[in-house]
Structures are given as structure tokens and as C-alpha cells.
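Ligand: 2-acetamido-2-deoxy-beta-D-glucopyranose. Inputs:
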Amino acid sequence: MSLKNISLTLLVAILGILASKGIIRSSRPSLLKQLIELGSTTLSSQPIIAPIIPYIIEGHHHQHHNRHHSKGNKVNICDDFPPDFPPPDTNTTSIFCVDRNGCCNFTTVQAAVDAVANFSQKRTILWINSGIYYEKVNVPITKPNITFQGQGYTSTAIVWNDTANSSGGTFYSGSVQVFSNNFIAKNISFMNVAPIPGPGDKGAQAVAIRISGDQAAFWGCGFFGAQDTLHDDIGRHYFKECYIQGSIDFIFGNGRSLYENCQLISMANPVAPGQRVINGAVTAHGRTSKDENTGFAFVNCSLGGTGRIWLGRAWRPFSRVVFAYTAMTDIIAPEGWNDFNDPTRDQTVFYGEYNCVGSGANMALRAPYVQRLNNAQAAPFLNMSFIEGDQWLLPFV
Ligand SMILES: *[C@@H]1O[C@H](CO)[C@@H](O)[C@H](O)[C@H]1NC(C)=O
Ligand SMILES: *[C@@H]1O[C@H](CO)[C@@H](O)[C@H](O)[C@H]1NC(C)=O
Ligand SMILES: *[C@@H]1O[C@H](CO)[C@@H](O)[C@H](O)[C@H]1NC(C)=O
Ligand SMILES: *[C@@H]1O[C@H](CO)[C@@H](O)[C@H](O)[C@H]1NC(C)=O
Ligand SMILES: *[C@@H]1O[C@H](CO)[C@@H](O)[C@H](O)[C@H]1NC(C)=O
Ligand SMILES: *[C@@H]1O[C@H](CO)[C@@H](O)[C@H](O)[C@H]1NC(C)=O
Ligand SMILES: *[C@@H]1O[C@H](CO)[C@@H](O)[C@H](O)[C@H]1NC(C)=O
Ligand SMILES: *[C@@H]1O[C@H](CO)[C@@H](O)[C@H](O)[C@H]1NC(C)=O
Ligand SMILES: *[C@@H]1O[C@H](CO)[C@@H](O)[C@H](O)[C@H]1NC(C)=O
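Predicted complex:
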């Protein structure tokens, strides 16, 4: 079995296993290379794989794509592809079809993006079939109104492995980079599989997606990486029912964003009880002045995984983050937040918590600048009015 035939569910499982056994951390070769080697040796039989998946991807929906195995040798790989697809254009929408096996017009996501007309006012839906797309994808500022429609975030993924070092800086390391407005993604994962940085490593940050356009929405998406997974850079953004994995500053940037019903999973190294080390942070929000209307609001999310981490650190002096109605496990350090070792930021950050639950949400030992928000203080962050969603956010269907 080659890497190209591994399903995304399996890739996620492998990533989790390698991380949990410390294999990724302890070796220097790239993960992609390790996966290729593993793929050609140990992973050739189904029975090994099956029991592993539920352990790693707790609470995920499992889809098994056996069409290449179960129907015998003579079956055409495109046989179960939707007939007459894509449907013809309408006045408001074009659908471009991407399938890496060549069953429709495009075999790469980038080729489909390239074919979208510049400055189209129509929405172009890139329907992306199940599979892992190994490519770095750039959606330029000239291409607004693009939708990436995958088949489930454990079924369709765009995967690359740039790092800060390999790409000229963290900001350019994204496997996918979106510079246009009105971008939508549904049921797809964005992954960076560069080696996980060890303690003290420089230049190993690896972004899964950078979102630098205004009015972007993500529904049922996955974001996988370690340090700096999700670069929520600039603009108003909405995330619903997404799975976001990382270690240090894994949601960072200066966006104004609402995260609803998302799972936030830390994959920082496990920390033994009693050890005082902190080895991760969920957010590093980058608001630079009190006049900027930016911030991250998390509502009805869950926060768990491994390590001992902060909810956020003050990457810029006016960093603004709110957690509301969110369940947190004991991986959250009691002080909760960090001022980036700059006590002057204690006066300017806005870090609030509201009606959170779980042992990580105990505020008794929180840093003094953290706010226990009252109803009125919390209200602006609790629904899509925070991102002016009534002006632009379309319903899921
Ligand atoms: C990405 O993976 C390829 C294939 O294994 C490897 O040659 C390359 O060095 C990796 N890049 C980084 C930055 O790790
Ligand atoms: C779509 O455009 C065509 C040609 O401009 C026009 O005849 C038709 O009425 C339009 N349909 C809708 C639903 O707007
Ligand atoms: C996709 O392929 C169909 C025929 O299979 C063709 O009519 C259509 O123009 C193609 N679309 C694009 C965007 O290339
Ligand atoms: C979009 O604009 C770029 C830059 O001018 C050009 O290279 C490209 O061909 C255009 N794409 C389309 C599909 O028109
Ligand atoms: C397309 O993008 C433009 C510019 O971002 C925006 O004004 C317009 O409302 C969008 N159209 C649709 C159909 O989303
Ligand atoms: C990144 O580049 C710097 C300077 O060349 C080097 O010291 C560092 O080890 C590199 N980091 C990684 C993770 O390769
Ligand atoms: C797509 O995402 C939506 C929103 O999270 C979810 O309700 C739906 O089940 C997902 N569909 C698939 C095929 O994963
Ligand atoms: C909170 O999130 C959970 C899990 O995503 C979901 O099942 C539940 O419906 C959400 N509650 C509200 C009020 O959105
Ligand atoms: C959203 O929150 C704002 C600010 O508290 C409030 O005025 C508005 O009524 C709320 N909207 C909805 C749909 O709940």
C-alpha cells in the first residue's frame, strides 16, 4: 500500500500514534517521509489498522472507503463517482470537480483554483472528492467567493509540510493560504505534517492554513498541526463544529473570529502531575491597539488533549480572547493565561471567561488580569453579532 492509498482517517490515526509514542518528536526525518516508509511496510493489512482508529480519533465519525479493495480487480475506480457531475453552471454558482484519481476535471485543488475566473461575483464551489491532496494551495486575493466542499473532515484533506524555515517565515508556511474574501470551507481538513518541533527548536513552526481574507466561514472542518496550526490572520471569520489540533499558539493571528461548538485538542507532550512545566497555549491573539475590533471568541467548545497549557498568551499587547460555555479538562494551567513575560500587557489584554465548566475552568488561581465576565460583558462575544455575521454569513446549506 502506498501513501497515496491511505485514507485520511488512517493518516490521522498514524499521526496520533506516532505522537503518542513520541516517535515524531524523537526523530529528525520528515513525517511525510516516515509515513511513506510506514505505509509501505507495517500498514499493509487492514486488521492492524481497525482497532487503532477508534482509540485515536475518539468521537469522530468513521468512514471506511473500501471500494478499492472490496469490489475485485476489474472495477473502474470511477464507477461509484456521481454521474453527470458537475452540474451545469447557474446564474449564481459554478461547480468545479476535483478528484485525485482523475474521475473528473481537476486532479489538484490548485488547478481548480487557477481555473476560477478572477474577480468573479458568482460563487465557485470546488467539490473535492475523498482523498489526501498533497499540495500547497494558494487562493489569491483576485478570487473571492470560493467554496472548498470536502466529503467529511476525516475523508478529504489538503496536506503539506512547509515550516517557517522552509518557506521564508511562519506566515508563509501554510499548507493552504487564503487571501481572498468570502471564502468558505465545508467538511475538509487542512494539515501540516512537518516534524513536530522539539523544545527550543527554531524555525519549525508549521501552519496548516492561513486565513487573510475577510468574511470566511468554516463548517465541519479539521485543522491539524502542532505549533501555529491555524493562522487566523486578518478579517471576520466563523468556525462551526471544527476540530482544531495543535500544541503552542495553535490558534493565532489578529482575526475577529467566532468559534462555535469546536473541539480544541492539545497535543503537547504529556506532563507528569506535580511538574510545573507549561508546554503549550491554545491562542496567541495579536491585537495591537485598543482601537482594533479584533479578538477570538470561543462559545460552547470543548478543550482537551495532552500537556499543560495556557488558554492564551499575549502575543501583542491588546490581545483579546473570550471563552464561554466551554468545557475544559485539567490540562489548563491554574493561572490560565500568560502575558508573554511582559507585565505591562497585564493592563491592556482582554482575557475573559464566562460560564465555562470542567476542572480546567476553575478560576480560583487565575492570573490577576483575567476577567470573570458578567452577563453584560460577555454578551458581545456570544453570537454572530461579534463578527457582524448578519451582514455576510450564509447558512450551512
Ligand atoms: C517535506 O516532505 C518531503 C518529502 O518527505 C521532504 O523532502 C521535505 O524535506 C519536507 N520538508 C520539510 C520542511 O520538512
Ligand atoms: C439567469 O440568466 C439568464 C440570462 O441572463 C436569464 O434569462 C435568467 O432569467 C436568469 N435566471 C435567474 C434565476 O435569475
Ligand atoms: C468539466 O468537464 C466538462 C465535461 O466533462 C466540461 O463541459 C466543463 O467545461 C469542464 N469544466 C471546467 C471548469 O473545466
Ligand atoms: C487571473 O489573473 C492572473 C494574473 O493577472 C492571470 O495570470 C490568470 O490567468 C487569471 N486567471 C483566469 C482564470 O483568468
Ligand atoms: C463575491 O465577493 C465580493 C467581494 O468579496 C462580495 O462583495 C460579493 O458579495 C460576493 N458574492 C457572493 C455571491 O458571495
Ligand atoms: C532553521 O534554520 C536555522 C538557521 O539556519 C537553524 O539554526 C535551525 O536549526 C533550523 N530549524 C529547523 C527546525 O530545521
Ligand atoms: C459536514 O459538516 C457539517 C457541519 O459540521 C456536519 O453537520 C455534517 O455532518 C458534515 N458532513 C460530513 C459528510 O461530514
Ligand atoms: C454545544 O456543542 C455540542 C457539541 O458540538 C452540541 O452538540 C450542542 O448542540 C451545542 N449546544 C449549543 C447550544 O449550540
Ligand atoms: C446577539 O448578541 C447581541 C449582543 O448581546 C444581541 O443584541 C443580539 O440580540 C443577539 N442576537 C441573537 C440572534 O441572539
